[in-house]
Write a structure and sequence with these properties.
Radius of gyration: 26 Å
Largest sheet: 6 strands, mixed
Bound molecules: fe (ii) ion
Distance between the termini: 69 Å
CATH superfamily of the largest domain: Ribonuclease Z/Hydroxyacylglutathione hydrolase-like
Shape: elongated
Helix content: 25-40%
Number of domains: 2
CATH class of the largest domain: Alpha Beta
CATH architecture of the largest domain: 4-Layer Sandwich
């Protein structure tokens, strides 16, 4: 088996390939590592045929949708996954054929309703069902401690104790364990009584993961993260530096329009000299009045430079082909001691 392990701040992804046929599956890819997965597959000569998410992740952004598009490979998830982009949905005990390898899916709900463990050869990818020295939490959407108990004690822990355990998370730098070691040493698995295990899981009182809402929103729908949306917009517009804009504004050329897209009270409290005001919320509806000549050079600004980037991208899409955004915002403009008009 060709095997690659990629760690991203505690998230673990795995690339599993058949050495004879060079077919491969990628398990739990994370969005910041897309180029790394592709490079590893290329280095090993692997063709990624399946992109598998062991469950709907609530704590990080899955790269499944982007990779699926790039590699023309289906996203594999459990039958009950809410993700509309999951193209291949598995039931309990379904096999995926990866060249000469066989990957068996076990439905192990508990951490989430759609959690799966994946058995390939001598190892099991446990997702967040079983971690090294821990288990996945059961207090996030669709989590259920009773189901986790049944999935662990009724199913996963009954497999061969020599199976190597590769979880979806480890924050202490450990790469793997075995089922036998976990049964013997994992503190959570020492609660073998059903009621006691469930009480322990209910009493954990864990803090919510950062980005919970955004991770669930994007992983369940395939939609963009806010950062992705900003990066997309930034790729569609040029920027202009503050000092350069200050020089141009002072020279008052006829073909430059500076557009302030903040709220009206912020504009009234001080703006770039000569700027015209059009709040971001009104942009599409009032743009024809605010910028009568589509051939004008337009520089958009806001407080910090993010809303203006989105607004400039919108203007470009609307046909204002010389729209750009200020590199920075009114806050940085004031701090730099540049001219402010009230
Ligand atoms: Fe998870």
């Amino acid at each position: 088996m060709i095997f690659e392990h990629v760690t991203t701040g505690g998230c673990q992804s795995y690339l599993v390939g058949c050495p004879d046929t060079l077919s491969a599956a990628l398990i739990d890819p994370e969005v910041s590592q897309i180029d790394r997965y592709k490079a590893l597959a290329a280095r090993d000569g692997l063709h990624i045929r399946y992109i598998i998410d062991t469950h709907t992740h609530a704590d990080h952004f899955s790269a499944a949708k982007q990779l699926s598009r790039m590699l023309d490979a289906p996203i594999v998830m459990h039958q009950s996954s809410p993700a509309p982009h999951a193209g291949l949905r598995l039931d309990d005990d379904d096999l995926l054929i990866i060249g000469k390898l066989r990957l068996r899916a076990l439905h192990t709900p508990g951490h989430t309703r759609d959690s799966m463990c994946l058995v390939v050869g001598d190892r099991v990818f446990t997702g967040d069902t079983l971690l090294i020295g821990g288990t996945g939490r059961t207090d996030l959407p669709s989590g259920d401690p009773e189901q986790l108990y049944d999935s662990l004690f009724g199913k996963l822990l009954k497999l061969d104790p020599d199976l190597l355990v590769y979880p979806a998370h480890d924050y202490k730098g450990r790469t793997h364990s075995t089922l036998g070691t976990e049964i013997a040493e994992n503190p959570r698995l020492q609660k073998r009584d059903r009621a006691e295990f469930i009480r322990m899981m209910r009493d954990l009182n864990l803090a919510a993961p950062t980005h919970l809402t955004e991770a669930l929103r994007t992983n369940m729908s395939g939609g963009l993260t806010v950062d992705q949306m900003l990066a997309e917009a930034a790729g569609e517009v040029p920027f202009i530096g503050m000092e350069e804009l200050d020089r141009r504004v002072t020279a008052r050329p006829n073909d430059l329009l500076v557009l302030d897209v903040r709220e009206a009270d912020a504009f009234a409290a001080g703006h770039i000299p000569g700027a015209r005001h059009l709040a971001r919320g009104q942009l599409e509806l009032r743009v024809n009045d605010a910028i009568p000549d589509p051939t004008m050079r337009v520089v958009v600004y806001c407080d910090y430079g993010k809303v203006s980037t989105l607004a400039a991208a919108t203007l470009r899409r609307l046909g204002f082909m010389r729209a750009s955004a200020l590199d920075g915002g009114m806050k940085a403009w004031r701090e730099a001691g540049l001219h402010v008009e009230v």
